[in-house]
Input
Amino acid sequence: MLDTASPKTPLIQMTDIDKQFGGVHAVQGVSVDLYPSEVVGVLGHNGAGKSCLMRMLSGAMTLSGGQISVNGEDVDLKSPQDAKKYGIETIYQTLALANHLDAAANLFLGRELKTRFGNLDEGRMYTETQEALRQLNPNFKNLKDPVSKLSGGQRQVIAIARAIYFQAKVLIMDEPTAALGPSETAMVADLTIRLKNEGIGIFLISHDMHDVFDLCDRVIVMNKGRNVGAFRIEDVNKDDILSLIIKGTLPDDWTPRGQAV
Amino acid sequence: MAGNDGKSKLSFLPTGSKLHKISALLTLLLLILAFSFTSTAFLTVNNGLTVLLQTSVIGLLAIGMTMVIITGGIDLSVGSVLALAGVAAGLVIKAGVPVIPAMALGIMAGAACGFVNGLVITKMRITPFVATLGMMMIARGIALQLTGAAPISRLGEAFGTLGNGTFFRVVEMQDNGFPKVIFAGIPYPAVLLIIMAIIGAFLLQKRQIGRHIFSVGSNEEAARLSGVNVDRTKIWAYTASGALAGLAGMVLMSRLVTVQPNEGVMYELDAIAASVIGGASLMGGVGSISGSMIGSFIIGVLRNGLNMAGTSAFIQQIIIGIVVIGAVYIDQFRNKK
Output
């Protein structure tokens, strides 16, 4: 149980993170860590600051205060490129796809494969995309349609493929199943476990308690920009978490539930 | 350029854009057919070459404009930048610089204006419409101030070569001692336009910068999150537009063998119209060089044909206005399906 790598250096260590927009404190003094082969759920209301916290880790937003370190090394993530350099990949809730481009163009956007002469290597990008998508969804055929023409599930598959194709070490999944049907949701769950077993650390933002209890090793709960609780998943139940999400405190009679183990 | 082997070439563009291009091409052919009835002199080799020559300036502007429009922006400054580039070249020629370096400097002046546009849009976060509207006035003002609003003439014969020279010109001496032009020759500006259009299409379809231009116009935030350097991409597009405006300025001023600081007024609107007729969307993410070339020629043929039919310049404006609205209407109609 405790061998969940606590003596190792964490993959990600976010310490005392602050984010202000003008006078609004979106995130205040939040500290989180993430170890290899671990899924950490990040929970909270809409507007509790969880997406904001994750956007800072993916380089989409700059910190107002605090420190992020990757593998024990302090880093300054000024842009998404910086984060990707450290192996931090993100599946955004909005999917972040360019609608007029096709699957391959989106998968390799910003990291296009090139031929010897520096031209786009369309052929290689297509075969790689085909391969990457087939692993997630064997029925994926419309490779050359602009992604605006694809279904929500197919778009999600492209967003996921893009994050894992480039050998992520840390994966941030922002509500990865919000737009999906039951079978696709199951596929994402399987994938999450597979990636975890491969040694990837995963932050999972989700509103779905089912997903959280099935997949996460630990959870942190945010309320009004603060971290109001960090637990191993065995120590809490659904009611505890809902209480934290809504009130920001645990039920009065709470004791760690997993102590018997 | 247009999907020559039917696969993978242009396939990341919406399939509908090919449809639009075909309909634009059909319009062009219909126009040519119609005008060949209204005037016997229209469908002749000589007039064809004239149309090529007349369209080359708008065509060059439309290449840059298309790139900017695909990023979701607009460049209103190209007409003024064209004049400023001409003035820059004219002044240094007067100062004794040879023609070719002077023209290179003119093109660089255009590129510099475009670069400033890009900086203002990305770093100062001014919308492209306002930023380039400002540049339109600034560049025109500088051009007029530097010259005192007077044309610069007597620039030497070499200055006129780019705009007036031709390939394959065939002239025969007649018995009476006068030369007879058998084939007027392919004008340099037309060849230049074709070369630049091919380079432009290549950059948009085959190079990373082109892919990034499409992605920025399609979904700027997604492009940024995917690791595309959005600011750099935009600055690149506006700089290219400025440089092409400079090049168009060289062609136009060379054709006149005079630098006119008040030349090129409203050319930006023709260039925008050409791009839009050719299928570019002002919302960004859609457009092609080949489409814009067809659009340029639709405008060029309309102007030329209406002139030959004796239509007044005012009526021409009305007709071109209607064509632009019609083209966008058809485009919307297609997108709704």
Observations:
- The helical segments of chain A are 50-57, 80-85, 103-107, 122-136, 152-165, 182-197, 209-215, 238-246.
- The CA atoms of residues 5 and 35 of chain A lie 7 Å apart.
- The two ends of chain A are 9 Å apart (CA to CA).
- The domain at 12-100+168-260 of chain A is CATH 3.40.50.300 (Rossmann fold).
